[in-house]
Amino acid sequence: MRTKQAAAGLAAAALSGLLATQASGLGDADSESLSVAWTAELSYLAESYLQTRASMVTTSPQAPRRTLLGATSPMADRLEDEFERLKAKGKMYEGVDGGYTKAAVDVTATGSSLDGNVATLEITEDGRLYAPLTAEDAAGGAPEYEEYSLPHTVTFVKQSDGSWLLSSDEVDAGSGPTPSTQLAEPDVTDDGGGAPDEDTAEGRKERSRSSA
After folding, report:
1. pTM of the complete model
2. Is the N end or the C end of the chain the one with fewer CB atoms within 10 Å?
């Protein structure tokens, strides 16, 4: 459960990102800005979704029911499929080198806009995927976790009862390695159980080295 201190920190981060965007003068002239309260609320919802998503590649994936109920029907269908595929990746990782034991995600809002009942949030997801280190691994200086930072553009639709439903998530993966929480083509179920290059144990070690 999020503490009052953590919630205050998220609200402060959301406010900081919102003010930076407004100061830049790059907002859409046809869109309104979200209030600080709504930006904080949607940042929390985005963080909850991305925490659930990251957990799917660990040895203890979270139950996705709450996340799926908090999405529009098309988005829920998409996430249900992606979560299953991510769990398959997690099982593969577990079989190769023990997998990830847990995930931790923090979200920072960097911009926002409101067009009618549709809110758009620019966020940065900072995630950590923890490895099951042995004493030998720790003594050898192996990183405790794999770290990644990923920009997203997420949209939410406001419902008649005042609630917000996640309606899209667009990721800007850039040219670097694909984080384990995202799906790359071909995925692990497309070619008889084989894994794409970035999902091999060596690929994961390389990402850990580069982010440590």
Report:
1. 0.74
2. N
Nearest Cα neighbor of 67 from 43, 83, 91 is 83
Long-range contacts of 62-69 (CB under 8 A, 24+ apart): 67/166
Query: Tens of pLDDT along the chain (212 residues)?
Result: 334 444 445 444 554 554 444 433 334 445 678 899 999 999 999 999 999 999 999 999 999 999 999 999 999 999 999 999 999 999 999 999 899 999 999 999 999 999 999 999 999 999 999 988 777 877 777 788 999 999 999 999 999 999 999 999 999 987 778 899 999 753 333 334 444 444 554 555 444 433 44
Integer Cα distance of 125 and 31 in angstroms: 24
List the beta bridge partners of residue 130: 102, 145
User: Tokens for 46?
Assistant: 């985005």
CA dist., res. 151 & res. 148, Å (int):
10
Q: Which 8-state DSSP code applies to residue 116?
A: T
Helix H segments across the chain? 4-24, 36-55, 65-69, 73-97, 135-139, 201-211
